[in-house]
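call fold(seq) -> tokens
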Amino acid sequence: MNEPLFLIDTDVLSYILKRREPFYQRSRDDLKHYTRFTMSCLTYYECLRGYKAVGATKRLQVFQELLQITDCAVS
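ret:
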């Protein structure tokens, strides 16, 4: 049986990548329950476009590394 996926939206993903509390710890707790996560193609696009628009190369690299461990179809 497939395990349920944790769908992360753009705002929550941003908080996770910035380690902004309380969302960061809450998301870590949720991931313990779900074990797998994904994001929509809209979240993928918004993050990718946003990081490129402001030249946030370090954040873009972290985002791309995160894609390697998601169940995101666009990764």
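The two ends are 24 Å apart (CA to CA).
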